[in-house]
Amino acid sequence: MLKLRQLEQNILANGRVDGDELEVLRREVYAGGKIDREKADFLVELHKRVQHMTPAFEHFFYQAIKDHILAHGRISTEEVAWLRRMLFADGRIKDQERKFLHELKGESKETCPEFEALFKESMKVPQEQHTSGHG
After folding, report:
1. Cα(5)–Cα(45) distance, rounded to whole angstroms?
2. Is the pLDDT of residue 85 over 80?
3. pLDDT for position 135
């Protein structure tokens, strides 16, 4: 985690994640083959704090969180509570987060009733006021 904390300081000083920093982040987060909760929490905090979101970092972030949640092929009640805190931290759900939930639902072998409730609740929220193409 120390290496990740040093990388975080560099990223926050720069204000964005791209190029070499993204590759180092990828290597560190996936070291050991899977993303544990500590690394997932680290990514969530970093995602909140990065000033200039790059498409590459955005894609990496959601893929890494998906890999973490789907490590066992199913979405548990505890993971849903964690997802809810992550997704609604800013009090609203963004289009990218809605797309992420669709992907989770489609790629999961099994979901719990709590995930289904979170999914339905998130889909009811009005979309953001810009066009984002199709996903």
Report:
1. 11
2. yes
3. 45
pTM for the predicted model, two decimal places: 0.89
Rounded mean pLDDT, 107-123: 95
Mean pLDDT in the chain? Answer: 91
Q: What share of the chain is helix, strand, coil (3-state, %, to 5)?
A: 65, 5, 30
Task: Give every CB contact of residue 47 below 8 A, 6+ residues apart in sequence.
Answer: 57, 61
Q: Are 7 and 28 in contact (CB under 8 A)?
A: yes
Q: Which helix (H) or strand (E) holds 79?
A: helix 77-87
Per-residue CA distances from 41 to 14, 106, 124 (Å):
21, 23, 26
